[in-house]
Fold each of these.
Amino acid sequence: MAQVKNILIVGVGGQGTLLASKLMGKCFVDKGYDVKVSEVHGMSQRGGSVVTYVRYGEKVYSPVIEKGEADIIIAFEQLEAARWLEYLKPDGILIANTQRIDPMPVIMGAAKYPENILEKLEQKGVKVISVDALDLAVKAGNPKSTNVVLLGVTARFLGFERDMWIDIIRSTVPEKMLDINVNAFDLGYNA
């Protein structure tokens, strides 16, 4: 088994970050890894920042990821990608949804949403995998499956076979949403 791998999932309340971390955790446990998942809820019910730490390896002692330790950051929203970037390792990967969700100061006119966030991060040398996960989720049949689209994109970088992810989705997601989520995963996986 490998050293401890660190994945930071960042987004805004209501985007499904917690389901993504649950599916990921199940996959790693099924593969025989020690897994720690820690969820940090900001003002999630009001569109605030939500962060989940997922760590797996032979033996994981702490659920917390320190600055500069994340192998992968999965950002469900552009501004969250910028906000949590300092947690990414120098050779880490930022998987970023191109979706923009205005925070309260922007909605109230007290601030402006920064322009070209992902392009600016790429110019700094960050390895950015950007994807319009919302568009793919709509194609899958439900805009709320954005989280599973992003999981599909991430799965390509984790080295576990697609069928294992599909089995975990089947055992976790409610029956009525199953086809949409499998479709969403595949659209992300093949993006």
Amino acid sequence: MSVGLEHYLVLSAVLFSIGLYGVLAKRNAVVILMCIEIMLNAVNIALVAFSRYVVPMLLTGQIFAIFVIVVAAAEAAVGIAIIIAIYRNRQSVDVDKFDLMKW
């Protein structure tokens, strides 16, 4: 039995669901950022799998995955910087206490 497209899509859906649950259920900002990274990696798996099984001679899925990795790295850097700045002021990374943008 070989690994097919369906297996990769199921893996991608499971990872995306785990990340979505973490984003919606957790309160810690660092954990939420990690769950967003899991969701982006799930999308990368789906992109590469579709590229491999639908159009194997083109590298479009791999190229898009590289762009997603670059965006995820930038998002992580900016997100961690914001979380560190808020932690210095509030001494907490609980997202329920982030009310700096309220009017």
